[in-house]
Amino acid sequence: MSGPEKPKVIGEEWSDERVRSFLAITPYDASENPDYHVMLKAYHAMRAEDFQRFISFFVAEGRDLNAVNGQGETILDLIAGHRRSEAYAEALVQAGAVTAAAGH
Predict the structure, then answer these.
(1) Do 96 and 65 meet the contact criterion of CB atoms below 8 Å apart?
(2) Which residues contact 31 (CB under 8 A, 6 or more apart)?
(3) Distance between CA atoms of residues 100 and 104, nearest Å
(4) How far is CA 8 from the centre of its chain?
(5) Regarding predicted confidence, which is higher, 25 or 1?
(6) Cross-strand pairs, 68
(7) Which of 40, 51, 59, 66 is close enough to 46 for a disulfide, judged by CB 3.0 to 4.6 Å?
(8) What does residue 27 show for φ and ψ, rounded to 5 degrees?
(9) Domain boundaries, the chain
């Protein structure tokens, strides 16, 4: 919420601890892939540079960059369809992510 009581924060620096905290997020629905869910939450919440750091922590934990959602899409499939998401997609590709069509 932003407004007079809680001003909107722009350009806030995220610590490594805060970025890593997304690794502990779990999906509400047990049928959802936890690795896909975590990456989606990070993508929605983080700036590109924070997302890039998150991806390095994610990979170091042995998590699956190519996890799929219920429609069989990887996070790269989703992000590739968004305008202004090039930096996020590039972070994924550099870490080894592929689209579902490219083979998983």
Answers:
(1) yes
(2) 70
(3) 6
(4) 22
(5) 25
(6) 74
(7) 51
(8) -70, 150
(9) 16-95
